[in-house]
Amino acid sequence: MYRLINSITRKILPPWLYERLISDWDKEGFKKYFKNTSWIFVAKLISFVVSFFTIAIVARYLGPENYGKLSYAQSFVSIFSIFASLGIDLIIYRDLVAHPEKENELLGTAVFTKLFFGILTFLVTVIVSITISNDYSLTWLIGIISLSFIFQPFGTVGHLFNAQVLSKYPSYISIFLAFFLPALKLLVIFFDKGILYFAGIIAFEALFYGVANIFLYIKILKKSPRSWSFSFTIFKKLFYDSWPLMLAGVSGYIYARIDQVMIQHIINSTAVGLYEVAVRLTEPLSFLPGVIIGSLFPAVVNAKITDSTQYHKRFRSLAILCLSISFIMVLVLFISAPYIIKLLFGAEFVESTHILRVYVWTNLGTVATSLIYNYFITENITKVFLFFTVFGASINVIANIFLIPLLGIVGAAYSTLLTLFCIVFLFLLTKNNLLKRARFLA
After folding, report:
1. What is the pLDDT of residue 46?
2. Are 299 and 437 in contact (CB under 8 A)?
3. Listed residue (361, 368, 383) closest to 293, CA to CA
4. What's the gap between Cα 399 and its chain centre?
5. More confident call, 25 vs 233
6. How far apart are CA 169 and CA 343, in angstroms?
7. DSSP-assigned letter for residue 100
8. Which of 54, 96, 202, 346 has the most CB atoms at less than 10 Å from its CB?
9. Number of compact structural domains in the chain
10. If pLDDT is split at 50, 70 and 90, which confidence band does 311 have?
11. Nearest to 6 by CA among 75, 259, 19
């Protein structure tokens, strides 16, 4: 699998760029982490291919209006989801890499904390949805999907496999779900059960993923959740390190998902459905850069511990690699947009073409902000990133207020593009000064 992903990368990138990037990594170390990447890549690739066509079938079955309702419910729940996880996932991942001797306390504290706040967030999400909407179908959709908050904590174990460069095991779960979940959706369509069943499948995915990870933890690592323990000291440290990430996550979800929520309230569900097609077609473009960033992150962390110069070289190479891949894929989708929409989603969604050709460029910003996000985590100055995401969320909300009434659905796409551009530009403009100030305050 290392050969497969290495071969794909060689074909995508010009030879001079490939050699330049790889030269910044020691070959054996790079091969070790790249092998780990290949497992995640294959799982994501299979999931993408299967789910890509399933989404098209579901959208055709539901039509723009009902597909828009389901998309609105998912977006609404996403905005609350960060309160269920408290933004501690990447902190746990980082600490499991850096402090493997504290594994039981880290996992136990993370799972129990996320379970408590998951239940609390579920209740709050349902109450808010009832308060702001008179559409009971939307309330039911939101309530069912938000059950995932209660199931997700058990999937935290997956971070341990990634931290130990054993990503192939969680990838088995992802590969299975890549086939099983679409099969369930096709059964819903075949028996004509309706939109609520699709919401149930979303909640079931979180439940299955959590249970399966616990099973692998017991069978593969030969360990037991009974050895986990809650540490108030670790909880305080996790909360201290992650609260900026939590607030940043809220802001991040706002500028990532507030579009659908505002389109629903300013226009209608049909408009949400048309916009969601553009979002869905763009999101898969992030999977390869995201997989590479996620799997090579431990190598960047380790380089920072041992060699500062090597750390900066690796991070620079990682950024160039991911942005180069992203640009090529964005260009391909931009050119082929009308053909893909008509072929997969049908004539009902043809209005999504113009939206997609604008929205697809947000992928470059998404990859760039992901790199910035990981950079500040590595530097352990997450409070700095909070400023950027709050800034971005504010721009997106304000831009949507003006651009959606002025330009219609495509105004939301321009708002997201403007938001990501401003975040990246602000980072490049102020990075050095912000880092110095954050380290001084720390």
Report:
1. 73
2. no
3. 368
4. 23
5. 233
6. 35
7. G
8. 96
9. 1
10. confident
11. 19
Contact 203, 144 (CB under 8 A): yes
CA-to-CA distance for 362 and 74, rounded, in angstroms?
20
Asked whether 311 and 322 are in contact (CB, 8 A), the reply is: no
Residue 368 has pLDDT above 70, yes or no: yes
Place of tokens 């209006």: 65
pLDDT value at 38 more than 80: no
Q: Are 77 and 115 in contact (CB under 8 A)?
A: no
Look over the chain and give the mean of its residue pLDDT values, rounded to a whole number: 82
In the chain, the largest separation of any two C-alpha atoms, in whole Å, equals: 62
Classify residue 425 as exposed, middle or buried by CB count within 10 Å of its CB (0-12, 13-18, 19+): exposed
User: What mean pLDDT comes out for the span 296-313?
Assistant: 72
4, 12 contact by CB (below 8 A): no
pLDDT digits (tens, 9 = 90+) for 263-295: 998 999 999 999 999 998 898 888 778 777 776
CB neighbour list of residue 395: distance below 8 Å, 6 or more residues apart: 255, 415, 418, 419, 422
Quote the CA–CA distance of 310 and 313 in Å, as a whole number. Answer: 5
**Cα dist from 58 to 7, 55, 191, 392, whole Å:** 34, 5, 13, 32
Distance CA 209, CA 92 (A): 18
| Rounded Cα gap, residues 436 and 442, in angstroms | 10
- Residue 361 DSSP one-character state: T
230: containing domain: 2-441
**Tokens of residue 65, six digits:** 């209006």
What is the Cα–Cα distance from 26 to 40, expressed in whole angstroms? 21
- Encoded tokens for 434: 């912000």
Reported as a single tens digit per residue, the pLDDT across 102-158 is: 878 888 888 898 999 999 999 999 999 999 888 889 999 999 999 999 998 888 887
* pLDDT for the residue numbered 159: 74
Q: Are 362 and 285 in contact (CB under 8 A)?
A: no
pLDDT higher than 60, residue 407 = yes
Cβ(385)–Cβ(244) under 8 Å? yes
Q: State how far the alpha carbon of 437 is from the alpha carbons of 35, 209, 225, 383, 434, in Å.
A: 38, 41, 41, 11, 5
Pick the more confident residue, 11 or 319.
319
